[in-house]
Amino acid sequence: MTKKSSIHTQSLEIPKIIIITSKLISFISTKLLTLFTAKLFTTPFKHKIPKRELGMDQKSFQKLIHIPVINKQINMYKYGKSDKKILLVHGWSGRGTQLYKIADELLGIGYSTISFDAPGHGKSPGNRSIMTDFISIILEINKQEGPFEVAIGHSLGGMSVLNAIKQGLKVNQAVVIGSGDIVEDIIDDFVAKLKLNPNISTQLRLHFEKKYGEKMNNYSAYLAAAETIIPVLVIHDKNDFEVPVKAGINIHKHLKNGELLLTEGLGHRKILGNDDVLEKIIQFIKLKS
């Protein structure tokens, strides 16, 4: 029986030196290896903002805001001036301007958007982050800047949006794009990419559960989807090699009021700028609003 391919919000290519270092540590101590992999798992890659996102970056009002629950500062973007607001949430190693094409389309139909750089991402301070940070930020921004009409999330951002709704975020609709469904699979995939013994997955999971005081699987997106009543549009590409399409299908299956759009040949990131995808998002928001 083959291991089920999984989501991996931290699925950017892992440098060979890190894989070699992990292997060496594995011969020394399981405990040390667990701490090392935990550090890697929560360290995003920071990328220079691409030229295509500079328009949104330059036209946005930006400021650092404090998130009390996690005691961290993050960079927030306000794009447009409409009182009808939509929250945009990037994925792992992304930025608050990553959904710029979606933001531009939303401005065109009378909305403004608010987005952010998660800790260790974009212009936000720090170098560590985890999904619970994303959720806490969403809920705090909603307190400070909400209410929002819609929340849109990509990849880890989609998982975070569904979990934030589960924890009390009030929006009329949500859109999740290329989102994973099972949290524990993320760890399995991460350990596999490091070419380590699968048993380390269990050690890493137990490490985080001890640190945060709850089961990691509680944050699986399909569980949050099962408790979500509002209309949710799930978009996923059949050729997404970072987050397999079955994840999006599973999220949709658990939704009470879901709609599913499967694309082909767009992968994990090009999907954010595809004209058909943009048109579907706008249609969904207009129809349900």
TrEMBL record:
An example Pfam family from this entry, by short name, is Abhydrolase_6
- Please name the InterPro entries in this protein's record: AB_hydrolase, AB_hydrolase_1, AB_hydrolase_fold
Where is the AB hydrolase-1 domain positioned along the sequence?
A: 86-179
- Write down the Gene3D superfamilies for this protein, in alphabetical order: alpha/beta hydrolase (3.40.50.1820)
SUPFAM superfamilies, sorted: alpha/beta-Hydrolases
Q: Which domain of life is it from?
A: Bacteria
According to UniProt, the name of this protein is Pimeloyl-ACP methyl ester carboxylesterase
